[in-house]
Amino acid sequence: MMIFPEIQTLSIVFNCLFFYVPELTKAGVNLKALEDRIRAEGKILPGPVLKVSSFLNHQMDADFIMELGAELARRYADAGVTKILTIESSGIAVAVACGAALHVPVLFAKKHLTSNVSGDLYQTIVHSYTHGTDYTVIVEREYLEANDRVLIVDDFLANGRAIEGLLDLIRQAGAEAVGAGIVIEKGFQEGGSKLREDGLSVESLAVIERMDADGIEFRGSC
Ligand code: 5GP
After folding, report:
1. 88: CA distance to ligand 1 center in Å?
2. Which protein residue's CA is at the shortest distance from atom 16 of ligand 1?
3. Domains in the chain: ranges and CATH
4. Of 90, 194, 172, 190, which is closest to residue 124 (Cα–Cα)?
């Protein structure tokens, strides 16, 4: 059948508009925007470490982080979360955003025994991915209770040592871990698969499959 060129063009434009639906979740965050920002602003350092200090780890894009936290909250909305647990310092911003969306308190494991830490403590040793050293983290016992259903939130997941440390604190308290919500998982490192094999629910907003001089490739995107 002969179709007029104008109609053909209109049809192509319509199809593009109709089928180009950005990956908007119900919470309103565009996950492609996260991938785009990681690609545009991320710097790959030896380690390998991805530096995203322009919006997540040093300077923080507050609006964007609120959206990321809301999206993690949406994924655990039915999990009966009573508390968010993170580790200082770079997990705190997104944890607060998630806690605000779920209307639950946010507790962060401290790396330093400061003078305002008092009372009985839970403590565990964590190996730092970025510093390459072991350090002790603590939470005060009164803030982590046996009846808590705890969602762990962090900025990055690499080998899973930070999350394992937080799981240990939750275990010591007799509380339950309902899952881990992560902004950026480096899927080429072992943490995510190990934690999932152990039965933990892990939700990551962006999963990096590969990052090198040729660029950054995400799981599940084209
Ligand atoms: P893991 O304990 O899973 O090996 O590493 C996760 C922790 O190390 C996170 O809390 C995060 O602060 C830090 N981290 C791991 N990989 C990266 C990375 O590529 N970039 C940044 N900025 N932090 C990372």
Report:
1. 12
2. 158
3. 24-218 (3.40.50.2020)
4. 172
